[in-house]
Amino acid sequence: MAIERLILDETQPQQQDHILKVCYPSDSQPTIENLVNLDTQIEKSFQDFSAAERDYLQCIYKSGLQRLIPFQKHKKTTLDIVVVLCAEQVYSKDDESRTKFKWISDRFKLDTLNRTQDEIRKIMSLKEQTIYKTVKGLADFKKGMEDYYSILDCNEEDRISVNYYLCLQKYHGLDENYFPKIEEDMSEIQKKRIQSEIDFTNEINELCMEFPFIRRIYEKQISDQFIKIEHLDSYFNNCQILDSVKLQRKINCKFYGEGKSMNQLNSAMFLKGKYMLSLDSNMDAYYFEGIKFPCLMQEVMNSKSHIFGMRTHTYTAFTSQVGKNMACAEHVFVATCYKAMCLLGSRLHYGNADILDREFFIEKGLFADADRYLNLSEDVFLGKRCLKFGGIIRYSEGVTFGKGRETNLKESAGFYTKIAGGAAMQSSSSIEYELNSSLPLCMLMPL
Q: CA nearest 416: which of 329, 341, 335?
């Protein structure tokens, strides 16, 4: 499609920025007057595109403005509303669901937006929206629709309050000044609720089967990073707490980005079994490596660990002086420094190879918060994510895997540049802030 070429073609960065600016005008607030004059604005903004391309962009842009009008006093942006709009489309596919969303469908004419669903998802990917956050938002919206369905006889102002309340839960860091007013409105709305005997258990189970890693959303221990527990009591009254989730192999992924970061997000859902082995492309692959696994897996299962790391021996150490230096650096960091970190309880993991508890990480939102750009330190982020959710990390000092390192100066310089970039990403990440806010000093020092 023309829109796909425009959005995904990285050889046209200026054109791509123009599209994102048009679709997400965060510097302006929509009004009724804006919507009346929308056709003129669209014709002027999209004059550089063909008719087919203009139709796609016009549909997305107009939908965002329509959704923004009820929230203009709360200063919500188009990006937030497009995400909510995407959630409505995902859960409005069958006739039964459309009945539940009838007042939304009538008001915002969702039928005209079905053809833009894939385009919206691609744009969400370009805006660095992770799979976990997207599905987390969809699950919130679905659960919130129980309240929608229960207050259909309420007035329009109450519906808007509930709608904004759901947005606030998904993006709770944006307008915290409105919490008292929203809480007051929600208390009044809860008093008006019409108790219905609708059972959403099957729908929730289907959602968890399609996206197993959102199961933890329905558990009592919910991370404050995404949603605040005290605001969820009304949403979890009729929600079944799932003890186990049947994982299915067939997954329909419609998220686009770089190969490595998308593998980091998607790969685990296509595998079977409890454990998976994480390998880099520079790992040894000769026959003897496979012979180690019967004993190794017994050790992994006995340790009940969620990350099980092994030592690496650098087989490129004798190819050049640079290879020897890189092997020495690997030994100092992995063998010497990490042993000290282990005593302090903050030894995350070696990197690759590692054996991972696949089911544990699927339920916790996968391995790391990757986006469409390369996550330079995905192995360190994995260890920190495991530490955050109370996972167990163990190591085997007696089993080693072969690993190649850089053998010339240019590649070695690139490696250290990558490490520096990864350190910068860590220092600016939310998980770094959470660990620094909660861990004792002895564990923080090596981190």
A: 329
The band of 245, judged by pLDDT with boundaries at 50, 70 and 90, is: very low
Q: What are the Cα distances from residue 403, in Å, to 284, 301, 315, 353?
A: 6, 24, 6, 9
Coil/strand/helix, residue 71: helix
**pLDDT tens digits, residue range 262-297?**
666 666 766 767 888 777 766 766 666 666 776 777
Following DSSP, what letter does each residue of 77-123 receive, concatenated? -HHHHHHHHHHHHHT-SSHHHHHHTHHHHHHH-GGGGGGGHHHHHHH
Contact between 355 and 275 (Cβ < 8 Å): yes
Q: What is the dihedral of CA 379, 382, 383, 386, to 10 degrees?
A: -170
Give the CA count within 13 Å in the CB-facing half-sphere of 2.
11
Residues sharing a CB contact under 8 Å with residue 174, sequence separation 6 or more, in sequence order? 76, 80, 168
Residues in the chain, overall count: 447
pTM tops 0.85, yes or no: no
CATH class of this structure's domain 267-444: alpha beta
| Rounded Cα–Cα distance for residues 310 and 227 (Å) | 36
Cα 106 to chain centroid distance, Å, stands at 31
Q: How far is CA 24 from the centre of its chain?
A: 20
List C-alpha distances in Å: 266 to 187, 362, 369, 402. Answer: 40, 10, 12, 26
Closest CA to 387 of 424, 416, 344: 344
Q: How confident is the model over 15-57, as pLDDT tens digits?
A: 333 333 333 333 444 343 444 444 555 455 445 555 655 555 5
Q: Which two tokens stand for residue 267?
A: 């790969």
Distance between CA atoms of residues 296 and 308, nearest Å: 10
Question: Minimal CA–CA distance to 138: which of 97, 90, 82?
Answer: 90
Q: How far apart are CA 218 and CA 222, in angstroms?
A: 8
Can you give the residue ranges of every domain in the chain? 2-235, 267-444
| Alpha-carbon gap, residue 257 to 126, rounded angstroms | 7
Maximum separation of any 2 CA atoms in the chain, in Å: 77
One-letter amino acid at 116 equals T
